[in-house]
Description:
Blueprint: E1 6-7, E2 15-16, E3 25-28, E4 47-48, E5 51-54, E6 61-69, H1 72-76, E7 83-84, E8 96-97, E9 108-117, E10 120-122, E11 128-131, E12 145-146, E13 165-173, E14 177-187, E15 189-194, E16 197-198, E17 214-221, E18 229-238, E19 260-269, E20 274-278, E21 284-286, E22 291-295, E23 299-303, E24 322-323, E25 325-326, E26 333-336, E27 342-348, E28 352-357, E29 360-378, E30 384-390, E31 410-414, E32 420-423, E33 430-438, E34 449-456, E35 462-466, H2 469-484, H3 509-513, H4 520-533, H5 555-558, H6 560-572, H7 576-596, H8 633-653, H9 660-678, E36 679-680, E37 685-686, H10 691-699, H11 708-722, H12 737-743, H13 747-755, H14 762-767, H15 798-807, E38 810-811, E39 820-823, E40 833-839, E41 844-851, E42 856-862, E43 867-873, E44 880-882, E45 885-886, E46 893-899, E47 902-907, E48 910-916
Parallel strand pairs: 1-4, 17-26, 23-31, 39-43
Antiparallel strand pairs: 2-10, 3-5, 4-8, 6-7, 6-9, 9-10, 9-11, 12-19, 12-25, 13-18, 13-21, 14-17, 14-19, 15-16, 15-18, 19-20, 21-24, 22-23, 27-34, 28-29, 29-32, 29-33, 29-34, 30-31, 30-33, 35-40, 36-37, 38-39, 40-41, 41-42, 42-48, 43-47, 44-45, 44-48, 46-47
Amino acid sequence: MKNYFYISFIILLSVLGSGQAAANVQLENLRCEMLQNPEGIDVTTPRLSWEITGKQRNIEQTAYQVLVASTPEKLAANEGDLWNSGKVNASQSVHVQYAGKRLNSRDECYWKVKTWTSNGESSWSAPAYWSMGLLHYGDWVGRWIGMDKLSPWDQEERFSRLSARYFRKEFEAPKEIKKAKVYIIGLGLYELYLNGQRIGDQVLAPAPTDYSENVKYNTFDVTKQLKSGKNAIGTVLGNGRFYTMRQYKAYKNKTFGYPKMLLNLVIEYTDGTTEKIRTDESWKVTADGPIRTNNEYDGEEYDARKEMPGWNAVGFDAGKWLQAEYVQEPTGEFEAQMNEHMKVMETLKPVSVKQLKPGTYIVDMGQNMVGWLKMKVQGKSGDKVTFRFAEVLNEKGEVALENVRDAKVTDVYTLKGGGEEVWEPSFVFHGFRYVEVSGFPGKATVNNFDGQVVYDAMQTVGSFKTSNSIINQVYENSYWGIRGNYKGMPLDCPQRNERQPWLGDRPTIAYGESFIFDNGKLYAKWLDDIQYAQKADGSIPDVAPAFWRYYSDNMTWAGTYLMVADMLHQQYGNVKPIEKHYPSMKKWLQYMQNLYMDENYIMTKDSYGDWCAPPATIEDGRGMNANVKYPSKLISTAYHYYYLQMMQRFARLTGNEGDMAGYQALAEKVRAGFNDEFFNAEGAFYGENKLTDNLLALYFGLVPEEQKGALVNTIVQIIEVENKGHLSTGVVGTQWIMRSLTDFGRPDLAYKLATNTTYPSWGYMVANGATTIWELWNGNTAAPTMNSYNHVMMLGDLVSWYYEDLAGIKSSREQTGFKLIEMKPLLVDGLDFVNASYHSMYGLIKSDWKKEKKRFTWKISVPANTKAIVYIPASSEKNVTEGGKKTSSATGVKFLRMEGDRAVYELGSGDYNFVAK
């Protein structure tokens, strides 16, 4: 049973002063690390969190009390029959673990909280809620149903075509209904209806997993949709990753059979009785509906002439439908989906619709996006409109499809005729900016189409803007690329016949992503995916869930397992993932050491090297296939050392202190072996003097102390002279380049890399029309075989550098999750202002600084129940004011020391306005 998610809900709480005027303090934004609607969780000891806000400064929580009740009435009467924490003298306001009565399947929990702060005692918050799901296999009733065969119009070959399955059942609810909930596992994807109404606004549900290991169920409260008397429930099952996109390479692609479903509808009547509607042989099924095929790579075809009006409502004649078959259940464990659903998160209008030739249009969305096209059309029965999706156009203005490989990326809609028709697909998504629309009856305009932007419904928690337009556009491109590749797992790309959760794309990038999106739930789920994919001997795959059977054994890809767990602790203060996964991490490290570490402590196995390093010039890369591996013992050994340092910290955090000495001793041997093997003391470089090799040695702490300065000079020489002011790193080196240059005294050079517009650089992508991040630095000249225009792996540590170094929003390593905030923004020539914010677990952090000739202004917001250490550029404390006052008389401001050209202060919570001269 998982135990590392926390639950929190939006509530408001006013705090009353103790013997003083009422203080304006509130509790709010108690979010939920699971579904946005907290129905059906399977964590029996959930953790509760709340935010405290207020206008005054120095708000610190001193105590709290939580009540959890089984009914709203008991909670209103202050009866915590499930849990009454009592007054707990503690400042903890996040990850407060439920410690009440044992929670059982389908329990409903109503809770509220009050706090005591430095500003007084609060009243009780408004109530919040969560419910428990079906915690045990035995709680599920009924049987798995499906249709384990092809229809005559289906085909099972390389480009398989499998139509959607439609299920329905009518039933009687003979009494007055008190409450009703549906628990559904619909594989691969489902849509759920009750009495003709769509249940929920989720799409492409449930989240994908390796279905042989685990399957996700979703819970919905359907009390409002159910009625006494006759009712009808209907579902549509799509293929998703269950009936996989390519059936013809069984040695590579995992497939799990035909779509299938298990559903329980639990009805509670007002007389206290309960009834369960289950999936069984009484259900009816047909595949002869309008969705004729649905394949994530190839698209969806919909024939509106095959629509069945009222199929999901009472009274429909299903006489020609088949009896549902009992089918083999998947072998994976049943788990509640604790990460967010995918949803349509934004709608874009095309910027243009141009006729390419008679009957064919090019729709330009103006933005490389992920989702699908929604259409309004009017024509005669049998008219077919065909959509082909692409990221770029060729020289003729046609959609360029070479880079999607053998993916057909084609949707087809056949009209029924008789009036305006509106259609969008149900079980596919596309990565695209351009759409070729052919067969459209009449004249197509921008009013006929909407781009539906689809990704996991996580909160956007960051904002970022600077005085530099290149940085701003790269940030915008990052935003679009990151969210587009959130699909219940972090994908590498959304357009070609791949779309896989490669571990090597996300080790550091996930950290930067967390400043923009509340991605903690997604990445906690992904750690589970990785653990499920681990072999008994400890081997971890390159892709997880392991839809592809790639177990190449390397440190850089598989080690993402450790780095993502570390990110969740650093950014969210969440140690539970480390606790849960520590044994599996330890097993993996031992596996690699046993098989691939030689007698000199060199890790001899690497698979990819510095993947996708840029060709020397843009012309050198013209037509080049980037799918070339350059394994590197230096890289694998450097990462081994880095992970040994990380495992020491994990051992301490998880109570495995006995492991620390072993990790430390081995790390010292690896460090010595690394320098013996790879360090050229005379030339002050490592390995072949590649930029990535030197960066890893420097950032990971492998270089001897007395040689650090010389190595920094070597790195600068490579960038400034050999590369003419550019980077030369691939996916590995780019993860460390910005922080290395900044931490070791050359933030100016990092800024130059961030603002370059010549090849290779992020700005070069922008200058060449990119609206997302390319897979390759030379994406505009490389061979199309491996050339995605929406890949996040080349972001490296850029986004985290934006927030932590340019904006100065960083969590302390000692008090993680932004309990203690470190704010030390970079001031580099050419950058005049940065205005950024990040909504942490404790609340909103703001950093809005501006520099003028002899004046530096900095507006700062520090959340309640936290502190910040801020570094203000000033020659003396006397030259700094806050709110027009000397800092010595400003509330919440404590001068600590002068550190070089910075005055260092400790701030309590509140809003501040500093001016330094």
